[in-house]
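Tokens for chain A. Residues wanted.
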């Protein structure tokens, strides 16, 4: 618990972390803390900080593109968002969140195959990207591929066991994937 509180106290300084190694170390600490969070409130705070760090982990130009892409996605301009996130990926192909956000935009534009491909790249770059696992679960559920949805949600729960309604969702997906006797 003390480690988690120390990690939470250093969160505001994360934006000032200079090196990739420092950012990676801070992210790893937060992801470890997420796995051991004592309650949903602490987990939610960590999730938000992790998402922020993922989003802002590149150059100012890429961060600006990420913000623009998110605005396009929120304005239901998915094709424009795909283009903007693609530009961000060209500038920083190692930014997992750019791949994740492009996957969301692709899915919204009807490109499920492209979305899944981008999510796989997200997870190659950041295997503990709970948001990417959640997105894979949503895509699989939309396709009524309950086993894939269950598998993806298991990953979410392994990373973030305090996900709100996570256990209930896991049970529901297990029932859909394997029947009532599972």
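Reply:
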């Amino acid at each position: 618990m003390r480690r988690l509180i120390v990690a939470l106290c250093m969160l505001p300084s994360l934006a000032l972390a200079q090196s990739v190694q420092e950012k990676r170390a801070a992210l790893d600490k937060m992801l470890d803390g997420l796995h051991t969070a004592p309650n949903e409130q602490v987990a939610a705070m960590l999730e938000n900080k992790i998402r922020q760090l993922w989003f802002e982990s590149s150059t100012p130009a890429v961060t600006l593109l990420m913000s623009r892409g998110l605005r396009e996605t929120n304005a239901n301009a998915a094709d424009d968002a795909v283009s903007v996130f693609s530009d961000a990926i060209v500038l920083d192909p190692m930014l997992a969140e750019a791949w994740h956000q492009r996957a969301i935009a692709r899915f919204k534009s009807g490109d499920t195959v492209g979305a899944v491909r981008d999510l796989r790249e997200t997870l190659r770059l950041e295997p503990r990207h709970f948001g990417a696992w959640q997105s894979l679960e949503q895509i699989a559920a939309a396709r009524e591929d309950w086993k894939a949805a269950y598998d993806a949600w298991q990953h979410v729960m392994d990373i973030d066991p305090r996900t709100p309604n996570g256990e209930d969702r896991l049970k529901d997906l297990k029932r859909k994937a394997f029947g009532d006797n599972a």
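Residues 64 and 88 are 9 Å apart (CA to CA). The first helix runs from residue 2 to 9.
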